[in-house]
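[Protein data]
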Amino acid sequence: MDNALDTPAAPPDPRASDSLARPAAGALLLTGAGWLARAVWEIRLYRAGEPASGPPDQGDGVHRPLNSLENSYHLVGTAGSLLTLLCAAVFLMWLGRVRDNARALSGRPPKYAGIWVYLGWMVPVVNLWFPRGIVADAYRASAPGRRLPFVVNVWWGLWLAGLLGGVLQQRDADSVIARAYSGIGPLLTADVAVAGAAVAGALMVRTVTAAQTARLARV
């Protein structure tokens, strides 16, 4: 699945890989905290109970005014979304650098074309395995003969669980509020899965980077 239009491999740069790993891991941990904050607010909504006026979306395009707790959930959700966007940008920069370094180290084209570093997360069906495949391919090229770290599978399994939970539920804020009032279990499961994926992702970033940095130092 390599792209014939990929540019020639640049010389590996261990400093760039390691310097990107730190903000990527930090952004992942902040994002995980953001999703845990959502879970906390959903618990608060559940405990408060649905107001007598009903859910925020009344149907037929009618929305009632939000109460203070519902407004604060919107703020928490917006902050979490901004953190997620920041995390995605930094993580993709790290992933691209790790892939390029692995290509230079191994002297062979990567299994996945460079465009999939970005599109692999968005294209349906392939987003179920391409991102993990890019990480696994970069690790194996950087540390030949070594087993793929277990944390890679933990990260990806939790991410898929959170992704599935988000697909099965409407994730706009007002519909989440309505679901929190009536059935909080699936919401919390998805939130905790994404938060867990963020923590495991931070560990994965450090583990893969450390293996690649050690190989680059030997080279």
About this structure: Residues 40 and 163 are 19 Å apart (CA to CA). The helical segments are 14-48, 68-106, 116-119, 130-142, 150-168, 173-182, 185-218. The radius of gyration is 20 Å. The mean pLDDT is 88.
